[in-house]
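Let us work through a complete example step by step.
Step 1: write down the sequence.
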Amino acid sequence: MKIAIVLNTSWNVYNFRMGLIKALQNEGYDITVIAPRDEYSEKIIQAGCIFEEVKLDSRGANVLKDLGLVFELISIYRKVQPDVILHYTIKPNIYGTIAAKILNIPAVNNVCGLGTVFLKKNFVSKVASLMYKIAFKFPDKVFFQNNYDRRLFIKNGLVRERISDILPGSGIDLEKFRNAGFKRNSKFTFLLISRLIHDKGILEYIKAVEILKSKGVDANFQILGPKDPNHKRGIKTDIINEWINNNVIEYLGTTDDVRSFINNSDCVVLPSYREGTPKTLLEAASSAKPIITTNVPGCKDVVTHNYNGLLCKVRDAKDLAKKMNHIASLDDKQLEEFGNNGRKKVEAEYSENIVIDKYLQTIEKVLG
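Step 2: predict the structure and record it as C-alpha cells.
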C-alpha cells in the first residue's frame, strides 16, 4: 500500500512528521513525500521515502496562481498512484484535496493552524474560507490541532462535524525530549524559539526585554530560529541586526536540534498571536521547562496558568514583561515544580504515540 504525504516544505516533514513516517513504514506502507525541495529533501530520501518535488509557494495568496498547483498535483498523484494522501498546511489541504478528489483518491487532512490569513478579517481571509469550504467537502477525515479551530470551521460551515477530529498537534517524542534534571542558571535565561515573523510575537518580546532592562533586570534574553525577511509578515534583517548589535537580545541562529538550547534555558517564551499546537512549547514542556505564552488558542492548550507556566495577554509587551519578571523571581522549588508539571501534562495529553495511533486507525478505516 502506498501513502503520499504532502506539505509546504521538506523541512516541515523532516522536523515534525518523521515519527509518523517511521511508524507507517513499520506497518508496511510505502511512503512518498511530496514537497518543495530544500536541504532536508535528501534526508527524507535517506529515511527510505520516495521524494517528489512540487513547486509550492507557501507565502503567496494568489488563488488564480495557486489553481495551477491543482494540475501539478494531479500530475504527481497520477505518477505516484497512492492509496491514500495525507495533506498538511493550507495549500496542500485546499488544492491537494481538490486534486485528490478529481482522481478519486482518499484524503486525510490536518489543519496545523489557521495561518496568518485568519488573524484579520479581510478579503484574503474570505477567499481562504471559501476555498476551505469547497475543498473540505471531499476529504475522508480532517484533523484539527485544537478544539477552537475545529469549532470555528464547524460553526462557519467549512467542515462537516462527523469527519472532523482533534489531534494533540504533531505529538512529542517523550524519549527524545526528556527531563534532564533541574538546574538554574546563575543569570536567568529566557529563550524564544520561532521563525522571526510578526505573528509569533517577536516585537512584543523585544519590547518586553527593553522594559525589563530599563528596570535593571539582569537576565539573558535569547532568540533561536530562522530569519524570514521575505515572508509577508517577516521582520527585516537590518532590524534584527540592530537588536543584536545593541545587545537587546542574543541571537542563536538556527539548529536541527533544539534540545541543548532548551536544556540550557530557565524559561521558554512564545508570545504568539495564535497557534495550532506549538511544537516548541511541547518540546519545552516535555523537557520540564517553565513556559510563558499568550492566552490564545493553541498556546493555552499547552500551558495551564500557574501550573506549568504563565499566560500573558496577546500583543501586550507590558504584560509579557510583567510575567517574565514574575517567573524570574520564583525560587528554585517553584520553578522546578512548574517544569515537572509540564512534563506530566505532555505525558498525559501530547505523546506522539497518540497521534500515530489515530492516523493508523484512520488510514485502516479509509482503506477499508
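Step 3: interpret the result. The longest strand covers residues 30-35.
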